[in-house]
Amino acid sequence: MCSFEGGEAAANAIVADPTILAVVGTACSTAAAVAAPIISDAGYSMVSPSNTASFLTDPDTHAAGYLRVSWNDRDQAVAMAGFVTDEGAVTSAVVVDGAAFAVALGEAFVETFEGLSGNNLAFEVAEPDGSDVAAVVAAIVAAGVPDVLYLPVFEPLGSALVAEVRATPALDGTQLATSDALAFPEFVDGLGADAEGMLFTVPDSSFTDSPGYAAFVAAYIDEFGEFPLTPFSAFAFDAANVILGGIEGVGVVDGDGTLHVGRQALRDALFATAGFAGLTGTIACDPLGECGATGFVILTVDGGELVPVP
Predict the structure, then answer these.
(1) pTM
(2) 118, 169: one domain
(3) Per-residue pLDDT tens for 220-231?
(4) SS3 for 91?
């Protein structure tokens, strides 16, 4: 249900069944916030194909049995900070909407940017509906005109902020950068000329061009009569196979053919995964459950189209 309540209900149902060994899930980070501790405390393991929130693998909040083959959203802020620094930016400002996603990205951007000798001039929190963008942009200008303004926010705030920035002459030379939360054609089309030159981070989906992914799609269509809903289907396939590989590695079959798998032995095997050839890349898990092979690429708006940076 992509909610705390849904995560709690599903996790409790799972750990009430001792025949379940491990979990592919959750779909949403919000559900995982509650489900991961419940599943972990019961001795089960879970591998998510699509959770991306940074807190799930943070040392202070990581649940012992939790892993993911998807990416960490924090990494896109790190990628953007590195890119704009390479392009010559030495000052920045950040606007977030107060959501955990935005705040985590904003903080990661500042940490990385300042670690690369940059100077962040302002960190502003705006209303999600964009009702206070004039005051927010004025506060940024008052703090000093930044080389880059990082906006890891959602709509409608994103469009309202960009329009206000473009209408502020003092910020004419400021590079606008954001996250995958705004990297879609409707956002770009709605802003028209105001979107030109903006920078976006998006997950690297080049694995969808591989022969292995093509074979997966063909097999999926043969089985279900339709295309996989999203590329996350490939991540789910990888999550399931990582679990199956762990079971194969530590399972013991007794004389009557019964398979026995120690829960802790499986968890240890999952965290020891390395060099696993998945659809989404080569999967290797670290002690905090980060297993994903997916990085980020930088897009820009050129002629009204989202394209890779030259």
Answers:
(1) 0.86
(2) yes
(3) 999 999 999 888
(4) strand
